[in-house]
Input
Amino acid sequence: MKAFAELLERLLFAPGRNTKIALLRAYFASRPDPERGYALAAIAGALDFPGAKSATLKELAAARTDAELFSLSYDFVGDLAETIALIWPTHGDDAPDLPAIVEALRNAKRTEIPALIESWLDRCDPSTRLALIKLLTGGLRVGASLRLAKLALAEMGLVDVNEIEEIWHGLAPPYTSLFTWLEGRGPRPTPGEAPVFRPVMLAHPVEEEDIARTDWRDFRAEQKYDGIRVQLVATPTGKRLYSRAAEDISAAFPEILEAADFHAVLDGELLVIRDGEIAPFADLQQRLNRKTTTPALQQKFPVGIMLYDLLFENAEDLRPLPFDARRTRLEAWFAAASPPAMQLSPLISFAHMDELAALREAARAEASEGLMLKRGDAPYVAGRPKGLWWKWKRAPLSLDAVLMYAQRGHGKRSSFYSDYTFGVWTEAGELVPVAKAYSGYTDEELNFIDKWIRAHTIARFGPVREVEKKLVFELGFDAAQLSTRHKSGIALRFPRILLSLIHI
Output
């Protein structure tokens, strides 16, 4: 456990992405199985201990310390794991190892888990205790994503990271076969016909200089629909619906899986489609992030997939083919399969860019984010290769908002107040929060804002600072919708900073 705790601590304070990758690579290369596999699972969010939740930890801490002192400390520190790690009265030096903790939690009855946790906390020093609590709750928050871990594994095994992505969803903790392959002691694990996720191809945004220097006659145009990018995988052994980030969202959309009576891998956009019309993204949000869904919800927010691409047909991998050839195969497959709850994304004919520019400006009325431009001869390549696919998004909406609260960022921004909450004035003269944003500014602007926040703080709430209501930012956003979860009654989609440093 101590090695895992040291890894988390070093990752937390590591200054940059490459340093974090190097730390992860060194850990994976030096630690034995199954410890490194469980550490990887913790980073991946693949460990779940139902009996070891935050409420249990709060109860244990309140029982072992003064309840009022714990409450005040938690309010000041702002982080549960850090608070418990520091305030726990016993400092031991006999922490159990990581595999023993995982196996004990898996085998223990729910009623036995609090006593187990309490004994482990007694045996840990503060640093190891912090790592233990992060492991139990699943919130590592050390600036190390699963993607960074996969890059570290790729460097360790001298393989392309996409090779790991191809097999990832066919693996399970503690990933022994993965490490055996990466160390050259066994074959590469193969997913076979398991319904695994395939790495997606992404696009670069079109900039002004790209418009002039690119021969757009080589490209095909489609609407960039305002839903979420998904990959539907249907094989003889199972069906899965994945988000672009490889999250399995099948449980929230059972009707999509029911319609997948075929053997193929499809790339498309998940949308709410009601009476043939594409509904706003806010309707789709009612279906997202749910573990289950009811028939009533399915009826109220009926979903479908706008199909972009065909990656596999039966067991044949079509990704090396040019886009034009894959599109021909997709059209033929769609005509033969006639899958319910699915439509083909129409290709847009155009003679010159002025026509596309007009379509882009009208995108909002078409429930579209803009346009996708794809080279006709482009294979389906994982990642974001420049020059093959472009996205030309509609111009954002904007508003002026007042900075209300600030919080420290993560990674290289961990020493700066870089995450902001903004508000707008109501007709009654009340300033209410409307959005959070942490992108869109330069390093120079970040330095200025950070200094300003420190000089104009009026209250502190754990890691959050409340500031004087004197700094106005222009925020850009893609859409706004009514929301009962926000005090303002409005939620903004993809808020980001366009212009700052305006004083009032």
